[in-house]
Model the fold of this input.
Amino acid sequence: VGQYVELRYNRLSDGTLVATRIKIEDDSSSDGEVDDTELEGLPSSIDANAQTFVMSGVTVYVDSQTRLENFVSPTAFFAAINTSTKLEVKGELTVSGSAQALTATAIEIED
Done:
């Protein structure tokens, strides 16, 4: 109780989360703040007009504050991705009922 963990998981079609990795974080040198949530995978849908995409059942919001590796703007980023583009996303996760949203702070295209 009271420890921070890093959790990697797969989401099943029924919405169940199955942990694939759990790591206890060492917060002895941290400032007590919770680290960003990290997602890796393929987007299942993309809405370039709204600057959002869905990955692992989480709606990811991109804005002008999002650090986009190798892209000068969200518009350029959305022009370059599709549902077969593997992404690594970091951001702040919010949960409201069963809805999950992540405001992206950084996005990187994975090889």
